[in-house]
Amino acid sequence: DWNMPDYISEAVAKIREQVGADEVILGLSGGVDSSVAAALIHRAIGDQLTCVFVDHGLLRQDEGKMVMDMFAKNLGVKVLRIDAEAQFLGHLAGVSDPEAKRKIIGREFVEVFQVEAGKLSNARWLAQGTIYPDVIESAGKGKKGQTIKSHHNVGGLPETLNLKLLEPLRELFKDEVRKLGVALGLPHGMVYRHPFPGPGLGVRILGEVKKDFADLLRRADAIFIEELRNTPCKLPALESIDAGEAPKNWYDATSQAFAVFLPVKSVGVMGDGRTYEYVVALRAVQTLDFMTAQWAHLPHSLLGKVSNRIINEVRGINRVVYDISGKPPATIEWE
Ligand code: XMP
């Protein structure tokens, strides 16, 4: 059986022994894994850790502020927030192919990270929130053949930066990582957040990414998430979501939920006037492993409320649709 305080002291001792007096850098994404890795490493070596948080302009609403408040303000972790929105959106201008977009975002991410890491000339280690399933998944690559979507992370960085890899979560499963996060003082709401893809809203704005589209999508997505959190749910939990506890609300009852921006205009009426505006699709799924997924049977009253709020509050969106496709054949993300 797993004893958390013992686990933490062993992990801390191991990190101290490995790193000694060296400096460590870590790419903080705001996701669960990199956040827990940051909290653990900070517990072990304090200011020898510097986190780099790259804001590519494709984050969810208030995400940058939330990450900075949590780590820099509350935990006292050194975090460099790099505002790279103009750089990312500049390179994405005119590009609509999904794989090309992913490659650009991945490449620019490495580029920004490399520049920032290069400034920390004493850094000897690159820390990553690699967890056990990631280790297994990359070991299996090649056998499964073609990549369906190229997943972006900071792979390849250690070689170019000449850094050693520090991966303190390598032996843990997701539920263990979450428990560790809570034990290290991260808020429950952050540790039990839905996963968010590295390319962010870049793969949730279909086709060309534009700042205006990202702004509309962020607002629609925030309304959807807020209503999911505020709507009670009495279904039994999926094992991976919350260790068997009954979910309190529809956010906890779904594995991933988000809005997708469709760059298609359709006609609507508002008051006496005709509108001609964009469409937002809502996606919510339940899954244990993200390899297959079911669309979530959200209550119609919840969907209706979200639709009304988005159309009334987000000028520029006049139609909301719900995605009822399973994986397979559809993927969870639309790109
Ligand atoms: P799909 O869309 O392939 O997604 O069904 C499965 C899970 O993976 C996430 N995803 C990503 N995560 N970088 C990530 O870190 C990526 O490029 C990426 N693409 C998809 C997706 O959000 C879902 O949880």
TrEMBL record:
What the protein does? Catalyzes the synthesis of GMP from XMP.
Keyword set, alphabetical order: ATP-binding, Glutamine amidotransferase, GMP biosynthesis, Ligase, Nucleotide-binding, Purine biosynthesis
What sort of enzyme, by top EC class, is this? ligase
Q: GMPS ATP-PPase domain: which residues?
A: 2-193
Q: Does the keyword ATP-binding apply?
A: yes
Instruction: State the reactions this protein catalyses.
Output: XMP + L-glutamine + ATP + H2O = GMP + L-glutamate + AMP + diphosphate + 2 H(+)
Q: In which pathway does it act?
A: Purine metabolism; GMP biosynthesis; GMP from XMP (L-Gln route): step 1/1
Task: Locate the residues binding ATP.
Answer: 29-35
Question: Which proteins does it associate with, and in what oligomeric form?
Answer: Homodimer.
**GO terms under cellular component:** cytosol
- The Enzyme Commission number assigned here is 6.3.5.2
Record-level Gene Ontology MF annotations: ATP binding; GMP synthase activity
Coiled coil stretches, renumbered = none
Specify the protein name.
GMP synthase [glutamine-hydrolyzing]
